[in-house]
Amino acid sequence: MNPQQSDLQRALADLDARLGRITAEVGEVRAGLSALARQSGPAVGGQSPGESPAESPWRAGAPPQGTPHPVTPAPSGAPAPAGAPSQPVPAPARPGGPWRPPGQDDPAGRYGPPPAHPDRPAQLSDRPWQQADRPWRQPWDAAPRQSPRRRPRITAATVIAAIGGSVMLAGIAFLLVVAIQAGLFPPLARVVAAAVLAVVLVGLGLRLQSRHEPTADTPVNPGALALVGTGLAAAMLDVIASTTLYLWIPVPAAYMFVGGLALGGMALAGRWSSGLLACLVSAGTMLLAPLISTGVELPIFVAIVGIATAVLAAELGAAVRVVWSVLPGFLLAGYLSQAALHSRGEQIALIATALVFAAVGVGVAWYDTAHRRPALANAALVVVPTALPLALLPATHLLRPGWPVGLALAAAYLAVAVLAGRTGRDRSHVLLAAVTGFVGSALLLLTWVELGGRELTGFALTLSALAYVVAAGLWVRRWVDLVAVAASVIAVLVYAAVNRPHLALSDRLAVREFTYWDVVSSFAITALAVAVTWWARRRLPREATRVMMVGAVVALAAFSVMVVAAGVVIGDLTGVARNGFLAAHLVVTVLWICCAAWLVLTANPRIADARRLGFVLGSLALAKLLLLDLATLPGLFRVLSFIAVGAVMLAVAVRYRKETEPSGSGSPT
User: Fold this and answer.
1) Given this model, what pLDDT does residue 192 score?
2) How far apart (Å, rounded) are the C-alpha atoms in residues 624 and 585?
3) Which of 145, 169, 343, 486 has the greatest number of beta carbons closer than 10 A?
4) Residue (of 303, 287, 176, 294) closest to 238 by Cα position
5) What is the mean pLDDT of residues 438-461?
6) Cβ of 350: how many Cβ atoms within 10 Å?
7) HSE toward the beta carbon, residue 184, CA cutoff 13 A
8) pTM of the prediction?
9) End-to-end Cα, the chain, rounded Å
């Protein structure tokens, strides 16, 4: 036999065996599917749990016992099977008439699914076999998914109600004021009439809302909002009038009454989710209260209403935040600017109100940022108007000197900024940290202004800028970078305006103007220049060389001014201030040329392009020698300056020639 034919036969035999195994596996899968279909038969026929197939042979594919088999007529020309009746036997009718659910005239539920209703399409509940085959499909009549809660839509009725309530509230305020001016009613009648009208308005509004059927667009009746808001604002105006005009209610009790009414109105606004009601109650009272009173109690009343609104209704929209933060903030700031016209007790009341109001603003902003999602950007911006009155506290006559108070307030806001920046990393926390950081920085700037003295103020500003630059280098935050840049620019401008470093070029002006404050301030500016250079190199690694050159020149120039100022001060102590000025300039020239020589000859890899920077400083030192020292320094100082510069430059030339000369060659490259 040919070996190739034997290999082919073996391959065919192996293929035949594999096909046999595949056929057997297909048969097993088919048998399994048939068994699965028989097991799913109870779900189709409605077999109760625990019923065996023998108890329900109808579902297993056989007719019930005692019931003849339903026979399908054989096709024409085909012989009937043996043992089968010659005529087809119809299937038995279902007892009890039409189909009923299992347990009603058909306990076993043997008769399968009901026919489709003629008037409607078949539902999945009528086809349990489809529901069993597709368990992931939900019934068509399932409850629809509820849509998220929407805010009430502003309609024409809402606008009309708001305008009507505002007009009525203005009329009540005019009633209290005009009646006094015209003498129409006695004081008791005015107060009682306003109180009765407020009660009637609130009662009508609540009754109208109780009969209202809420919908998705109008969950609250607009008329009820207008009536209740007008009534509550009228009640608070009535209390203010009874306290400030007629002195019938003690001021502390009036504060409590107004606060209670405001809290009740804001609680109702929160329950109804109505920013309109909150604005009617708060803004209506704040805008119309100045028509009744202009005393020192007015900003306190307004701040109480604002605090109540912030505590219970801050989440009802940006308009509510603006109302409760902006109006009291500006009113308190206006009264604090005139604090010297008030008594000691009134100043204490205003200061305490400003502190509590600012604390509430920071607390609400923190809560909005940490707990409410999504946190509105305006939630953090309420910090600015609530902190506006604090800017005037250091200038208050009662708090003189005011810089310790301002320093404490600035430290508090900066601490909140640091905590907010470290607590959360999302955009809301970053915004809160930025706002509180800017507010704290502004308070710190205003605090240094209250120190008294231009030199001390400039020195304090420079130290603050230095601290911000170091913080910006260690703590990477955009708002810290912005504050550091702004503080550095302000510090340099104030230093240039107050200390006037250009006086170091004139011996007459320097001897007359320079003091020890110029020494201290120039040293602080030098440290600031070094810190800014370090920070800028970290932020701008690609521009490290240029940053290093500019920073070195600025720092060396500020240090030179410090040396000149120190020479003038030391010379003044010895009685020869001009000689101190001349010696200081000699030291500055030698210092510049020595720094240039060190940079040219250094091999420190940490200083990028040190040799180029050395050449720049050497050129500046030579320019100073030829343009300034030659015209300013007298005989001996001029000689010493030229000799020192020449000696250093010769030493650099000799050393530089040796470093650049190739080994084994007698000529430089």
Assistant:
1) 85
2) 10
3) 169
4) 176
5) 88
6) 25
7) 11
8) 0.67
9) 93
